[in-house]
TrEMBL record:
SMART domains: REC (SM00448), Trans_reg_C (SM00862). It holds the Pfam family Trans_reg_C. Keywords: DNA-binding, Phosphoprotein, Transcription, Transcription regulation, Two-component regulatory system. Residues 4-118 form the Response regulatory domain. Residues 135-234 form the OmpR/PhoB-type domain. The modification 4-aspartylphosphate is found at D53. This is Response regulator transcription factor. Residues 135-234 bind DNA. It comes from Streptomyces sp. 900116325. The lineage of its organism: Bacteria, Bacillati, Actinomycetota, Actinomycetes, Kitasatosporales.
């Protein structure tokens, strides 16, 4: 899969190394050296992926992600950082990054992460009515997930989600009432990757609850099954089932 990739990295040697590996895999690469340049390049181009260093001049990577997601831009974002604490990782994901790697990293692992992200965020640019299958639109109570259009709505109101949040909700909407373990949801995000913490799933679930629950601290749709994982349910159907039993 050939993609348009922006590499935002102020370390010129590091940026050149990443550029060479990406071009070796057939991608078109643009390199920028600061956060504001990264924002400008995303806004004026049509990138599929942003490889983004956290610590950069003019605007750091966290601010870049915050702005891009506020503008509802859906490109995949892979963050690179010399910071190694899990709190930093979770903050990046909380803001809307799709994946996160700590320096120093293996270029081969970086390319594997890039391939995974591009596979999971790639979808056809054009779709004819004949290919718009009915089962591409999933409904669980008030929640509607349109995979073809990459749209989510709750009670008829559109909800903006990051690519990672969308993948989790789409997977759960396809099998309502099924309990998904954190490892299973992690596989939906990144494939089976031993370098990614299952706490990343908890961050996405927390953010989804803010968007789809009437009262996020007392969820009725996206439920925790203690000791196992999470499930998506229709509270109205659950109440009706209990009343008839």
């Amino acid at each position: 899969m050939c993609a348009n990739v922006i590499v935002a990295e102020d370390d010129k040697k590091q940026a050149e190394l990443v550029r060479r590996y990406l071009e070796r895999e057939g991608h078109a690469v643009t390199v920028v050296g600061d956060g504001l340049a990264a924002l400008d390049e995303v806004r004026h181009g049509q990138p599929d992926l942003l490889v983004l260093d956290v610590m950069m001049p003019r605007a750091d990577g966290l601010d870049v992600v915050r702005v891009l997601r506020a503008e509802h831009r859906e490109l995949a974002v892979l963050m690179l950082t010399a910071r190694t604490t899990e709190d930093d990782l979770l903050l990046g994901l909380d803001l809307g990054a799709d994946d996160y790697m700590s320096k120093p990293y293996s270029p081969r692992e970086l390319m594997a992460r890039v391939r995974t992200l591009l596979r999971r965020t790639n979808r056809p640019e054009q779709a004819s009515p004949a290919t718009d299958a009915v089962d591409e639109v999933l409904s669980v109570g008030a929640i509607r997930v349109d995979s073809a259009r990459h749209e989510i709505s709750v009670d008829g109101t559109a909800v903006e989600c990051t690519p990672g949040e969308f993948r989790i909700l789409a997977a759960m909407a396809a099998e309502p009432e099924r309990v998904f373990s954190r490892q299973r949801l992690l596989a939906e995000l990144h494939g089976f990757d031993r370098y990614i913490s299952t706490r990343t799933v908890d961050v996405h679930i927390m953010n989804l609850r803010k968007k789809i629950e009437p009262a996020p601290r007392k969820p009725t749709r996206l439920l925790t099954v203690f000791g196992v994982g999470y499930k998506l349910t229709d509270p109205a159907a659950t109440r009706a089932s209990r009343a008839s039993s």
